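Researcher: Good morning. I'm working through a list of sequences from a screen, and I'd like to move beyond sequence-only analysis. For each chain I'm collecting a predicted structure so we can compare shapes side by side. This is the next one on the list. No need for commentary yet; just the structure.
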Amino acid sequence: MNPKVGIVVPTLGKRPEYLRLCLKSIRAAGDARIHIVAPSSVDLTSIVAPELYDDIIVDPGAGLSAAIHKCLQSFPESVEYINWLGDDDMLTTGALDRALSILVGCPNVSLVYGGCEYIDEKGTIIWRNRSGKYASPLINFGPQLIPQPGALFRRDAYIAIGGLNPAYKWAFDLDLLIRLKKIGKLQFVDSTLAQFRWHEGSLSVGGRQGSVDEASRIRRDSLPKSLKFFSSLWEIPMRRAILVAGERLNKKSSHSK
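Model: Good morning. Structure tokens for this chain:
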């Protein structure tokens, strides 16, 4: 049978040991088609076993969101549910099966998400994002607590909203979630679905300030005009709180080395 799930893994091939762990975790998470997107200059065949992926897509060179979008479009029509996973992140065993079981039975749900563990370079857990049902209504006003790693969304919903916005460099996942919420329910499953590796080489960690500022702009743009004027009342202190939380994770990560 052709898998109904498709997972994209963007990579530059600079972390082959993490990449192999990532791909192995997807295989253990459920029946999925795996497409890797990478620059044409990267020889993945020399560092990744062929059974760990199904296709390699050439990065168009227009930024990360454009690369992911192109790869998400590359799946055959049999793939109905999709997402992407960073090459240094991992899914938990059976995660895709758990998310898929909800999406198949609930056509009004556009995305399923669960908990996520933050791990350091060695794989030691430094924090747990347990998330919850509250994370969905919070995304327009508060911090982004819906873990993109481990989530699964409908391909037709992704197409309906126009896919990822290439204008965003860091927080394009938040923009996607807000738009997916407009056409369907974001359903929480009480299970840890993924592990996010917290290290300076990660885009969202190394570009923390840019990510926080961009996410704030996305939230403001999603608000009704009547609320945009007052949004600085909570956005300014919230941005500071998010940066402080990131600094604490950096300390935990460095102490575990």
